[in-house]
Design goal:
The complex is a heterodimer of chains A (115) and B (113). With 115 residues, chain A is mainly β. Helices cover 0% and strands 49% of the residues of chain A. Classes of the chains: A mainly beta (115), B mainly beta (113). Chains A and B meet through strand 5 and strand 9 of A and strand 5, strand 9 and strand 10 of B.
C-alpha cells in the first residue's frame, strides 16, 4: 500500500475562496506531481517537483500554485476558486525516473467542487 | 496532439468475455507502463514493459510491448466485474531538460455481471 496521503478527499467551496489541497508522502521520494482528472478521463500534469525548492508547471495550464519546502509535503493552492476548477486532483510521487523503474504512487485524490 | 492514444475509449462487456485494449504512439519508448484506476481511487501500477516484443502475464492479464516499442496491448481473459476500471498506459517523456511520466487517454472498462 502506497504511503501517500491527500486531504481533504472531498471539498465543496464557494467561488472566490482560497483553498489548499494537501499531499504528503512518507516514502522519501524526491519527485512529486499534481494531476488534474475529470471523471473517467485522462490525467493532465499540472505541476511537478524534483526536490525541495524545485517546482515546475506541467503540460496543462493551471491557475494553481505549488510549493515544496519539505521533501514529504507538496501542497497545491488556488487563490480564488472558480467553477471551472471543479475536478479531481491527484497527487503522486516516485523515486527514480529511469527505464524499468518508474513506478508512480498515487494518493486517493481530492474531488473539488466549486459552486 | 496526444502522445499516447488508447483505444477503445469505452468498453462494456459481459462477465467471462475476453477483451484487448491498445496503447499506440508514433514515438519509440524505452519503457511503457500500465496502470488501473478504480472509481474513487488513484491509479495503481500493474506492469512495466521495457523490451520490444516483451510479453508479461499477471494472472488473467497479458501485456505485450510492440516489437518497435511504439505500441502496447493489454488482453484480459475471462473478465470479471472486479476488472472494472480505467486502464491507463504511461511512459517517460522528455520535455526540455525534464522527464515526466505522461499518461494516455485511458480506456474505461465496465464488466457487467
Amino acid at each position: 500500500e502506497a504511503d501517500i496521503y491527500q486531504t481533504p478527499r472531498y471539498l465543496v467551496i464557494g467561488t472566490g475562496k482560497k483553498i489548499t489541497l494537501e499531499c504528503s508522502q512518507t516514502m522519501g521520494h524526491d519527485k512529486m506531481y499534481w494531476y488534474q482528472q475529470d471523471p473517467g478521463m485522462e490525467l493532465h500534469l499540472i505541476h511537478y517537483s524534483y526536490g525541495v525548492n524545485s517546482t515546475e508547471k506541467g503540460d496543462l495550464s493551471s491557475e494553481s500554485t505549488v510549493s515544496r519546502i519539505r521533501t514529504e509535503h507538496f501542497p497545491l493552492t488556488l487563490e480564488s476558486a472558480r467553477p471551472s476548477h471543479t475536478s479531481q486532483y491527484l497527487c503522486a510521487s516516485s523515486d527514480l525516473l529511469d527505464q524499468g523503474n518508474t513506478e508512480a504512487f498515487f494518493g486517493q485524490g481530492t474531488r473539488l467542487t466549486v459552486v | 496532439t496526444q502522445l499516447l492514444e488508447q483505444s477503445p475509449q469505452f468498453l462494456s462487456i459481459q462477465e467471462g468475455e475476453n477483451l484487448t485494449v491498445y496503447c499506440n504512439s508514433s514515438s519509440v519508448f524505452s519503457s511503457l507502463q500500465w496502470y488501473r484506476q478504480e472509481p474513487g481511487e488513484g491509479p495503481v501500477l500493474l506492469v512495466t514493459v521495457v523490451t520490444g516484443g516483451e510479453v508479461k502475464k499477471l494472472k488473467r492479464l497479458t501485456f505485450q510491448f510492440g516489437d518497435a516499442r511504439k505500441d502496447s496491448s493489454l488482453h484480459i481473459t475471462a473478465a470479471q466485474p472486479g476488472d472494472t476500471g480505467l486502464y491507463l498506459c504511461a511512459t517517460l517523456f522528455s520535455s526540455g531538460s525534464a522527464r515526466q511520466l505522461t499518461f494516455g487517454s485511458g480506456t474505461q472498462l465496465t464488466v457487467l455481471p
